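Deliverable D4.2, example record:
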Amino acid sequence: MGEDRLSDKLVGRVWARDRLKDEAGGALVYRSADAVTPLGRGGRESISFSADGRFEMSGPAADDRSAVTSGTWAVDEVSRTLKLQTDDGRIKARATLNVDGDLAILPE
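Output generated by the structure prediction step:
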């Protein structure tokens, strides 16, 4: 009933990394792909979330060719944080959606 659910803001959108907004503490900042973001070396990094709890992240690999990583995501609506884990378990991260509507992802 009028709840402002974080999960509802994530699903159905593509989020593109905005390297110019990356934070000093190491957080990677993603904005809605509708917003203009500069291309990085090797192409744009993006992440999308499905309603079934899966995510897909794409972007340049170490050799600058495009690579796709997938995994699971879950939201803690109380703390308003997002937890991500890749299928192979290599990458774990937490994220927050800030007041500007940007998604800040901090690898653990």
